[in-house]
């Protein structure tokens, strides 16, 4: 199995899958024939990041048939992630604290992602990095 971060069907490349490898390189391979792909089949992908253009995520159960294994998913709003502003409001942190700590590498690479001009951070990561702020929230409940 080849480990990847994520894979997408990109509208502009209807016969290909674009995958992001663990080293952050973007590669693409042909959809057909349906088979286990080899790393030798990967061609460099030079377009915009699939998350920033019209694309859809390839489901994990499909990736298995291509011999690919997706690593942990990056946080999104749908999976309970918070924007930096929401995290600062909810946990009572000063403005800019979460963005500053993202740049200072206090969060692991799989705990946040850049979306447009902002960031989405997983709730678990916020509670890990700011335990006192998380404890204040549970004390109020």
Question: Can you characterise this structure?
Answer:
- This protein has 141 residues and is an alpha+beta fold.
- The protein folds into 2 domains: 69 residues, no CATH class; 59 residues, no CATH class.
- It is built from 5 helices and 9 strands; from the N terminus they run βββββαββααββαα.
- Strands 1, 2, 3, 4, 5 and 6 form a 6-stranded mixed sheet that branches. Strands 7-9-8 form a 3-stranded antiparallel sheet.
- A hairpin with a 2-residue loop joins strand 8 and strand 9.
- Helix 4 crosses helix 5.
- The longest helix is centred in the C-terminal third of the chain and has 10 residues.
- It is elongated and about 55 Å long.
- It starts with a strand and ends with a helix.
Concise account of the structure shown:
With 141 residues, this protein is α+β, with helices and mostly antiparallel strands.
Protein traits:
141 residues; alpha+beta; 2 domains; 6-stranded mixed sheet; 3-stranded antiparallel sheet; 5 helices; 27% helix; elongated
What is the 3D form?
A: elongated
Mean pLDDT: 88
Strand content: 25-35%
Number of domains: 2
Work out the radius of gyration. Answer: 18 Å
What is the succession of H and E elements?
A: EEEEEHEEHHEEHH
Distance between the termini: 45 Å
Largest sheet: 6 strands, mixed
Q: Which runs of at least 5 residues are low in confidence (pLDDT < 50)? A: none
> What percent of the residues sit in helical stretches (DSSP H or I)?
25-40%
Number of β-strand runs: 9
Supply the helix-strand structural class. alpha+beta
The helix count comes to 5
């Amino acid at each position: 199995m080849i480990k990847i971060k994520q894979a997408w069907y990109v509208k502009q490349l209807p016969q290909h899958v674009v995958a992001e490898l663990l080293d952050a390189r973007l590669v693409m391979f042909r959809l057909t024939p349906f088979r286990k792909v080899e790393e030798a089949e990967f061609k460099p992908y030079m377009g915009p990041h699939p998350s920033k253009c019209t694309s859809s995520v390839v489901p994990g159960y499909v990736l298995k048939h291509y011999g690919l294994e997706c690593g942990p998913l990056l946080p999104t709003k749908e999976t309970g992630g918070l924007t930096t502003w929401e995290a600062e409001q909810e946990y009572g942190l000063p403005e800019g604290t979460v963005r500053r700590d993202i740049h200072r590498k206090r969060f692991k690479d799989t705990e946040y992602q850049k979306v447009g001009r902002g960031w989405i951070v997983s709730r678990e990561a916020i509670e890990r990095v700011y335990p006192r702020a998380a404890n204040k929230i549970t004390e109020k409940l």
